[in-house]
Amino acid sequence: MSSLVESRVLRDEGLCEYSRERTNPSMQVTNISLKSYDILLQLYAADYGVAKVPLEGRLRKSLENRTDNILKVLDSHVQFRNSAPFETKDQESIMEQYLVEVGAISLFFPDLRANDIRICMAAWIGLMYSIDDLVENMQPDEANIAVRHSIMALQEEGCVVSSPGNIASVVKYIAAFKQHCAKYLSSQASRDFFDSVCTALEGMLEEVQFRHGDLPQDLATYMRIRARTVGVSPLFSLVRSTLKVQSPWSSELMDMERDICASTGLQNDLLGLEKDIRTKERMNAVLLGTAQTLKEDQSVDRDALQMAADHISAQHNLLMKRAEQTRDTLQEKALTRPELASEAKLADVLLLFAERHLTFSASAKRYELGSA
After folding, report:
1. pLDDT in tens, 289-319
2. Partner of 189 for a Cys bridge, out of 4, 215, 241, 339, CB 3.0 to 4.6 A?
3. What CDD domains does the annotation carry (predicted)?
């Protein structure tokens, strides 16, 4: 590992493992203040008592003696990202981004220590970061070609697709991503993971179509797209691959996963609201939920904005409460049906992820979290 990576890891405990202290979470309301517009968000989340496990002071020993260390994930991730067909930022900025991508995986999934899985998770987050803006800024026809060629590259063994311009950059990155992840996954896990990635890519295409007015401009359509483009379903596919099940996953659990995907998208929109107003970004559930929140002079109707934010927050909280109920039901069933232990475990992973994502998003935007 390079000295640059090592120094960045050590600085301010920039990369950590995490552990949870509670088997059963306590549900709480988290207050987040959007000070620019005097907006208060009150979001429901599970508290599992997650704590940092710093790497500083045992870096060398961990690298030498442990096979499940997050630093090994970083090492593999740096190699993958540096092989990408386009990365134009300076080395310091690039390394900081890589650390964020790997650190997010450690934060999102405290119970997960399987490095092969975490390497693929980090690769997917890095892929989204690199191609999202490219696809978003394409015209619908161009985006359609990019997504279709990318899906072909993922689904067809040995497929090499010839594509022009920016489309080629996207497809080449997808091909490199597939080659990288396939080294770490079983055949079945690879198929499930790449199928889930294809669904997320189709969501990116629908987002372009939505932006250009080719799809209904309503909140329901947006929410369907957002649940895909938020990109967490591929992560959950990887988690499922680590768990042994004797039959297909229950409809209850898959409904819970969809609820968590939707709530994650709403978290992004709520915590990204200030920036989206500032940059005139329309793809936000809060802004779509108001008739004309932004006036022609770019001033904001604060009351309308609070009302819309309250409405989207309520939708988020409804999804979280439903997920909590599903988790509790599956935990209770597993007490008398051992074959459901994996479902109960995955339910905890999903519910914990939603809280960890909220913490991550708030921290990234430097919001202070408070309990109601």
Report:
1. 775 445 554 566 788 889 999 999 999 999 9
2. 241
3. Isoprenoid_Biosyn_C1
